[in-house]
Amino acid sequence: MYDRNPVSRDDQTFGMLCHLLAFSTFIIPFGSIIGPLVIWLIKKDHSPYVNEQGKESLNFQISIMIYCIISSILIILFIGVLLLIAIGIAWFILVILASIKANEGSVYRYPVTIRFIK
Q1: pLDDT at site 81
Q2: In the predicted model, what is the mean pLDDT of residues 73-83?
Q3: Alpha carbons 18 and 6: distance in angstroms, whole number
Q4: How much is the average pLDDT of 97-109?
Q5: Using an 8 Å Cβ cutoff, are 68 and 84 in contact?
Q6: What gap in Å lies between CA 80 and CA 78, rounded to an integer?
Q7: What pLDDT is attached to residue 118?
Q8: Average pLDDT in the 35-62 region?
């Protein structure tokens, strides 16, 4: 993790973008992963804060994709539809919450996230 020094306004903005660009999935297929990945790859070596927030966003988006695939398979058992709805609502709320926290310069950790990128 980065040190607890105040985070610059520029870093806060890029940290927020790491989370907000997940909504690009409504425009670009796999945009929820591609958007945060681009920001993270560009800024990870310049800012420990953006590096941390980028990894957190990517881990969450990959986890959500896995949960959606599993829920889609569970549609056969009739619980998948409810799970997909719950995942969609949780995804939307958590991305907005993470974006707000990142814009404030706070470290945000998504719940139920598999940590693929350390």
Answers
A1: 93
A2: 91
A3: 19
A4: 92
A5: yes
A6: 6
A7: 84
A8: 93
Helices (H), the chain: 9-20, 31-43, 48-73, 80-103
Q: Which is nearest to 24 in space by CA: 85, 99, 82? A: 99
Residues ≥6 apart with Cβ < 8 Å to 115:
59
Is 1 a residue whose pLDDT tops 60? no
Tell me, what amino acid is at 46? H
Among candidate residues 16, 58, 14, 56, the one with its CA nearest the CA of residue 36: 58
Rounded to two decimals, the pTM is 0.88
- Number of residues assigned to the chain: 118
Burial track 44-69 (b if 16+ CB lie within 10 A, e otherwise): beebebbbbbbbbbbbbbbbbeebbe
CA distance 48 to 31: 23
Contacts of 55 (CB under 8 A, 6+ apart): 40, 117, 118
Which token pair is 74? Answer: 């569970």
CB-CB contact of 40 with 55 (8 Å): yes
Chain-centre distance of CA 109, in angstroms?
9
